[in-house]
Amino acid sequence: MQDRPFMQALKLRIQGKVQGVGYRRWFEQQALDLGLKGYVKNLSSGDVEAVILGDEDAVLDLLKKSFAGPLRANVSNIDQQVIPMHDLNYADFKMIRD
């Protein structure tokens, strides 16, 4: 009998040059490749917000990759907040357009 993987949910606020450089599309593809659920969207402040939910290893992998992002991005900081799993109900991962 295999143990279920530990699940984790994070809310991220990604700061730096992250809008107009394909960051949301890149983030969405990374999340889908890792089998994560949640969303990514632009904020009016110029930051990007994301909620990622899934296997802890996949969540941490995407968090690590998020500091680099796509080629034209320049991430200066990522604020992270662990959020309760029971508050979330996502069927998949999506990019929210403005």
Show the helix and strand layout.
Elements: E1 7-17, H1 23-33, E2 37-42, E3 48-55, H2 56-66, E4 74-82, E5 93-96
Parallel strand pairs: 2-5
Antiparallel strand pairs: 1-3, 1-4, 2-3
Would you give an account of this structure?
By secondary structure, this protein is α+β, with helices and mostly antiparallel strands. It is built from two helices and five strands. The protein has a five-stranded mixed beta sheet. A hairpin with a 5-residue loop joins β2 and β3 (48-55).
Characterize the largest beta sheet: strand count, sense, and whether it forms a barrel. 5 strands, mixed
* Average pLDDT taken over every residue: 93
Distance between the termini: 45 Å
Rg on CA atoms, Å: 13 Å
The structural class is alpha+beta
String of helices and strands: EHEEHEE
Number of extended strands: 5
Low-confidence stretches: none
Shape: globular
**Share in helix:** 10-25%
Strand content: 35-45%
Instruction: Give the strand line-up of the largest sheet.
Output: 4-1-3-2-5
- The count of helical stretches stands at 2
